[in-house]
Amino acid sequence: MANERLRDALLSRGLTPDELAARIAVDPKTVERWITKGRTPYAKSRHKIAAILQESESYLWPDALSEAKASEVSNSEIVKVYAHRNSVPADLWDKLLARATTYVDMLVYVGMFMTEKPGLLELLRSKAEAGARIRLLFGDRDAPAVIQRSTDEGIGPHTISAKIDHALAYFRKLDGVPGIEIRTHGTVLYNSIFRFDDEMIVNPHVYGKMAAHAPALHLRRLSAGDLFTTYADSFTAVWEHAQPHKWED
């Protein structure tokens, strides 16, 4: 059976089988067999391919790793767990953002704490100009899930909506910048997600608690792991159903 996931990942990256073969130093016919016959590469080659294609091994070759081994690797993707998001060191946020060159993704309702970083807008603009893809997802102020979340936090039904207005006003300067997209969503926010290339801060939400007081996970992607990819896929699912934000004049 052909490996359509591998074929699609190559196409998405604009790579031919011959080009992949050259990059990992194998015979082009070997790569063709991996695709057309569904052969599974050795672990060393799987690691290289997953890194090049920026996909997890478990996605490209679901049967290559046992469930126990995949779980073990995924556990290793957890760099550190913080009891509260506001316990994440400020310099860690700065380092992750500074190092990111390809992807910067943010899924929040508000994310107001990010606006406290001096020069944030200029930095995001410069990264986009250098070729990074930046996607910012904020809550839809009128969405029932947003209003319910505000009520659950005990701060009144419309407080988070007002905060969203404030956050969007701040980020409006990035509207129309090539490489930067800003959308709003009305989904139930189970986690806030902040991705910086192959590292991520995930902020799982807790009923009745402000996001700053809920835990945070620092993740670093491993090619054979599933945890990082799970949250990256969750971001994509919300992004695909979100709407480009339109500011009122």
UniProtKB/TrEMBL annotation:
InterPro entries registered for this protein in UniProt: Cro/C1-type_HTH, Lambda_DNA-bd_dom_sf
CDD domains reported for this sequence: HTH_XRE (cd00093)
Listed SMART domains: HTH_XRE
Residue ranges annotated for the HTH cro/C1-type domain, each copy included: 6-60
Protein name: Helix-turn-helix domain-containing protein
